[in-house]
Amino acid sequence: MRGALGGSGVLLRRLREVMAAPVSPQERLDRLVVVIAGNLVAEVCSVYVLREDGSLELYATEGLNREAVHLTTMRAGEGLVGLIASEAEPLALSDAQSHPAFSYRPETGEEIYRSFLGVPILRGGAVMGVLVVQNRASRLYSEDEVESLQTTAMIMAEMIAAGGLKALSKPGATIGLDRPIHSIGTTLADGVGLGHAVLHEPRVAITNLIAEDPGREVQRLEAAIATMRLAIDELIERGDVAHTGEHRDVLETFRMFAHDQGWLRRMREVVMTGLTAEAAVERVQSDTRAKMLRQTDPYLRERLHDLDDLANRLLRTLVGKSNGVTREDLPENAILIARSMGPAALLDYDRRHLRGVVLEEGGPTSHIAIVARALGIPAVGEIANATALIQAGDAVIVDGQAGEVQIRPQPDVENAYKDKARLRARKQEQYRKLKTQPAVTKDGVEIQLQINAGLLVDMANLEETNASGVGLFRTELQFMVAQHMPTTAEQQALYDAVLKVANGRPVTFRTLDIGGDKVLPYMERLEEENPALGWRAIRIGLDRPRLLRAQVRALLRAGAGCDMKIMLPMVATVNEFLRARMLVRRELAMLERDGRPAPASLKLGVMVEVPSLLFELPEIAREADFLSVGTNDLMQFLFAADRENKRVSDRFDPLSAAGLRALRNIVDEAAKADCPVTVCGEMGGKPIETLALIALGYRSFSMSSASIGPVKAMLRALDAGKARQRLDAWLGSSDGAASLRPLLAALAAEMKVPV
């Protein structure tokens, strides 16, 4: 086998001639394997294509028994071909039959061939098939020969992706490119959305793969690399981080990888095999993605994103295309597909046309999840390799309730989800009918239902749900979607608008809750071992009093003549609250000194979310004007279980005895001090959890607007007194049950309470 890099150009030119010939798809494929075998001096060349059922089918061969074409199949992971498909790595063997994965197929006649070289046919990191060459003699294949076959496999990938082999598929054996995919991720925002894919960062289409002049292509690649490096350097030097939406530390990582000689040398080598500069970038990106997607190390997975971003920058420079879809281009029934997105990017799209969001990253408490819930857009995160698996225009179903995504669904699956969407719509209509009904339990206990908000667009939900107010207004969202630190005047303008829309209904403003996973793009990011336990929320406010004072000043000015409620997050000790209260009182005194109108009343409260505060409840209930329980953080800290870590996030149930006893202690101590208490965490918006909280004694809840209807339907059917008796009895026992959820579900069924 010749396999020298110099011979690759000849091979690619011959392949291009075959691709352009006016012949049938099967004849074209048959000619291609002959050309590959002849050029590489191989006695066998075979192409296996991945089918929608996950098996690999022999589509063409030179050297093996041709009667085996379209008859020989193997499962992913079966045989040497299946091993290559599952690992997405080349495999070169001097004695194939001695390999433990070797699988004998008598119909092919391959038992006489000892040497074996196979490479995956990759596109966007996804395996589309396997390309194999074989020889009778035992021999070692060189790196150049592997390289040559990988380059050829890229041409095959583009032919498969273009649909050139669809006509060869037998009924029930469709090519895997178009196969339906069911992927399970993480719920970001509830709801069901059906539509067609729109890529937030669309893949750059490469139409010219084979180079006429490799030397010229190297020059183009070098120029694009220089342009990319210069652009990154300029971004860092002028500090224009917010404008691009990329944090400074990410840009520094980009700069490091942009100068990585190993990555750049690899692209130059691929260009010299006969590919154009853009095809070489695509080839290296696809190979790297296939390898790193199979890594379990989160650091290595994160580096994949860095290399993806760099490769996309290079491709856009080489092809000369802009990135992204403008809101004017957004079609009807769009499902937005992205690796990751910031809240500002999502807000740029026309929500009237947006039916769902699918992300490779993002957890339920991420910024994008908060905004998606506020907009009422179904969203699912942690869908591995979504941007490679989903093509623009593909039919996609987003099931935000189950955390599932259906890609290119079968008609029966699509019809089932249409029925689910219609059922959901009927339920929502039933909930809307409850809008004017009081939130009172069956035995006459009044419950206050409020909404969580963070953007002005959320405030319309007050009227839509007839909620009694806003129990949690996340002020940090204004900071997150802005391109610079909002001024006091800009903050005041938002708070003015919010209070105006509230029209007398109470609004509880939470002061800036940043840090941990909430990093502002225009602020320096601190590397911390445990960000959730680090420098965040009120800790930043007390250490940077000018920041907290500016926000308090804006809130007090906006609340002139109104009843103002301000809540402090992440308070760990009573002393922290007292220090913050002193700062607020100073700002109030300055307001009065300057002759500015003050709020008609001011109540300063605390979020109970740090377990240490559970041991100062009598003191904090005396000092604070109100308490609000942030169950998200409280439970993850209480059980030492990171809610973003799938391995432990569901290990402990907040409806366990330990969690419920902690929550009961809070409401009991608040009652003793006559201190109002509200639940504003996720627990307060889930019917069965809210049932338990009502049974504990909670009477005020703040939740997403979509949760108001289900929670109201639940509580109107609930006998709160009976539920309290049962729950007290369960909490008084010591049977060691991991969770009281099954008992609560049985109680709901007994009382015919919808949960």
UniProtKB/TrEMBL annotation:
Localization terms from the record: Cytoplasm
Enzyme class: transferase
Residue ranges constituting the GAF domain according to the UniProt record: 24-170
Cofactor: Mg(2+)
Coiled-coil segments: none
Presence of keyword Metal-binding: yes
UniProt keyword Metal-binding, yes or no: yes
GO MF annotations in UniProt: phosphoenolpyruvate-protein phosphotransferase activity
EC number in record: 2.7.3.9
Record-given protein name: phosphoenolpyruvate--protein phosphotransferase
Lineage, highest ranks first: Bacteria, Pseudomonadati, Pseudomonadota, Alphaproteobacteria, Hyphomicrobiales
The encoding gene: ptsP
